Amino acid sequence: MGQEPGAVTITEVAYRPALSAPIGMDVVDFAELRARGRRRGIDLSAPQRPAFHHLIHVRPGSAPLEHTVDFTRHVVPPGGWLWVRPGQVHQYAAGPEGPWEVADGVIVIWRPGFVPDDPPEVTVPVRPAGPRARLVDLAREHLVAEYADMGAMPLEAHNKALRALLSVLLLRLAHAAPGSAAAAPGRDGPFERFRAAVERDFTRTHRVADYAAGLGYSTRTLTRATLAATGTTAKAYLDARIVLEAKRLLVHTDLGAADVARHLGFTDPADFGAFFRRHDGRTPLRFRAAARGTAP
């Protein structure tokens, strides 16, 4: 398939830690990550969809870091943090002298499951202040020191320590974020199970009733749990996930609208077009043109 003007693709990035890294986790400086990207032929300013977590920290005294995650542009300030999860499409600011090239910081990357329990989700940059900032910094220092001291304990014990220390850092950051006083849903609660099922099956079924039946809940229970966790209904949450994937594919690949529809489980492309217009207000191709800055 020929590329249309402005077309780009998503770079799928597998987890490949440094040779000295423990299994499942790595700590890498911005400068080293830029060097890795050059060695592997990965343009870090292009859209990427890594299969692992990124916890990005911009050091105090650095220039701010511009970063786009799923069509939302963030500016991570000096001393700030941004957590990018597996499957999200993100990209660093472009340009030879751009923010990514001049910013100074460190990134913690880890495979899904390395940390037993994810803390509450934080989707915006966090800049801890006051006593919380010191506690976050202590957690970071302890994690980095343990990471660098791999030979001091057996590898299994070293990994256990890293899991515990990363958990502490993530919890500190979650509770330094705006609105952190809200209780997080339980890991095995209805919403968490629904969210996991949606991630697995949203290209196969678009009916909340199917998820409820598969999980052993009523649709009312799923809706109530999703409202409590996200402020939206279960159907709105499911539809938003489908729309997000549609936008990723429309902007970052050259798939036609009919191919995107089939990928997302729509048997009729017209149904997909109507679904997309209902949620975005534009046809899929007009959305693509606007996002890419090209003629429709």
From TrEMBL:
Keywords: DNA-binding, Transcription, Transcription regulation. PROSITE patterns: HTH_ARAC_FAMILY_2 (PS01124). InterPro entries: AraC-bd, AraC_XylS_family_regulators, Homeodomain-like_sf, HTH_AraC, RmlC_Cupin_sf. The keyword Lipid biosynthesis does not apply. It comes from the Bacteria. The keyword Signal does not apply. Residues 192-290 form the HTH araC/xylS-type domain. PANTHER family: HTH-TYPE TRANSCRIPTIONAL ACTIVATOR RHAS-RELATED. This is AraC-like DNA-binding protein. It comes from Streptomyces griseoviridis.
